[in-house]
Predict the structure.
Amino acid sequence: MSLLIVGSVALDSVATPKGKVEDALGGSATYFSIAAKHFAPEVNVVAVIGEDFPKRHVDLLLGRGINLDGLEIKPGKTFRWAGVYDESFGDPETLDTQLNVFEQFAPCLPESYCGCGFVFLGNIDPTLQRQVVSQVKSPVLVAADTMNFWIEGKLDELKELLKEIDLLLINAMEVRLLSGEKSLLKGARKILDMRPKALVIKRGEFGTLMVTRDGLFALPAYPIEEVIDPTGAGDSFAGGFMGYLAMRGAVNETELKRAVVAGTVIASFNVEGFSIERLSSIKRDDIRARMKHFREITEFTVPEI
Amino acid sequence: MSLLIVGSVALDSVATPKGKVEDALGGSATYFSIAAKHFAPEVNVVAVIGEDFPKRHVDLLLGRGINLDGLEIKPGKTFRWAGVYDESFGDPETLDTQLNVFEQFAPCLPESYCGCGFVFLGNIDPTLQRQVVSQVKSPVLVAADTMNFWIEGKLDELKELLKEIDLLLINAMEVRLLSGEKSLLKGARKILDMRPKALVIKRGEFGTLMVTRDGLFALPAYPIEEVIDPTGAGDSFAGGFMGYLAMRGAVNETELKRAVVAGTVIASFNVEGFSIERLSSIKRDDIRARMKHFREITEFTVPEI
């Protein structure tokens, strides 16, 4: 089934202990769409860029079969972000954020996108996220990302959004902030009471916890030999997750778990290179092999006691 | 097979957002032995206490069938620790440490302990850990815990110890410190080159990574509804891990993985109560049920792509 992503396309300047890049292709919609396209037959992007956005980046995305009918070009400059990671590869220090054309982003779906079965609302103002939902006709699954900025600044609007989506991607700190609960599990259940059917709690290098009404799924991260650049790990996870579900066209406990695995594996490739280098060079067989290896290194039998 | 633990027995004063206890039973050998005794038929403790140590604590350990022939009573006071956990339940703030009789601890094994098949060297001076190893006759498995204090202060002695043990329990920060490698996996392999056959890397609420010459095993933590007191989580993990292996009497990849599961499950109970409250009230059936549940919430099938 076709998949819709609304998010940012950006030019990132990133430094890590392994090197640096300047004005490299980035943004949530970029990472998401390249990750998702490894699985989903049709990935449709809604985003905005400025007149300075290099044509080679557009060509790269088009060349991967990603639909850019919803990519607006506006007068002005493209969204830029600059950040530095230290040796822990934890949260980066932001050196510069220039929203530019992204500041006035008002996502408008091309007519051809309105029938998308799977919808992912990247981390933008919940008011805009709701506007996107209202433009899609009877989707199978709507998922959203959010962040502390919106939880603290637009809580009411975010709560309205939660009534309109099926699945929320969130980190542990945000679960506690949104629910007011110290316990992660209790907090997650409180958010499920606000309507979403599933919460996918991202814990970076420590894995993922999915909480649904029917149960729990705990998955460690795939152990990486050498992290190069963590930028886009969360967005490529989301892309792998949604892309897999869109490819299968079905949403049930088994497929949701597999989607978490798909997201984890795709994200593990992403952090092995700067920008989209590694994410765009892997093949279906690389992904398959890593999924199989992941199964092997996490498998156990119940202890006999 | 019989299991030997050398470590501390202490009186802990702990405050967490869920309450507090004063002079409660604690120490690595305490948590370890109670955890291990859920599995191992024979658990032998080597530790030291002062004359002020309450008889009821000794009776509790003896009542659980733990062998205290190696528990020395020395003139002076028992090791005391006081700490506070904040709402993140991360590393505690230490308010007070009084080593007391533990300062002069020179572990001496009763003759009856020298034939133990499984040996765990709690986190003490590596010189003392080596003295213990030298007193044990042909053990099946010797495992050790350590910490940054010894890596930084007694590196040569610790490296000698590594040549004499089979398995090291360590956290991610310590792997990096001991190996000088930023990458966890590379660092772990470098430590395996120093002789141990396996490294069990504890990541607290984020699970465990075991690295052996033959492979990897990644396990998330068991998701807890409500953490009460994290004190002793690492020691009860170690006790469950070693106790399970001693019960099975065999060390192979399958049993090592199951031992990590056993340690994780036992540690998950431990943090649900202050001191040893929860750890000492659970039954074999509680452990079995949680192991089974743990399997269910971590199981997945490889995505079909």
